[in-house]
Amino acid sequence: MSQQAQQQMSPREERGMQQQQAARSREWVMQPPVDIHENGTGITLVADMPGVSKDRLEVEVENDVLTIEGEVSIPMPEEMKALYADLRSKRYRRSFTLSRELDLDQIRATMKDGVLTLHIPKRAEFQPRRIQVNVN
Length: 136
What we know:
The protein is of the alpha+beta class. 15% of the residues lie in helices and 38% in strands.
């Protein structure tokens, strides 16, 4: 749009145009529900991501932030057409800031039937240890 045309727009029209541009650039993303369990040796995160396969899943840790992303893949025969879809987005994304007491080099991840399970152990110096008491 030319500068002259922008100058002729009312503030309301300009706001509407900005909202349309923002809506086009915004990506709809679903946040998967995640259960978090902690014990003495670490934490376990269980994320429900139905429709996401292992090859469409990304798990990253950067600067103590764990990010999980996945893209839903719903196979459909070519001759079928969806009349109604209950999904606004085909992407999941969720991030967590992790404690420095966790050993980020030892994260284990498994994916089964759309459920992602992450085990993050505590670093050895933060794990509980039993101290033996000697009697003299």
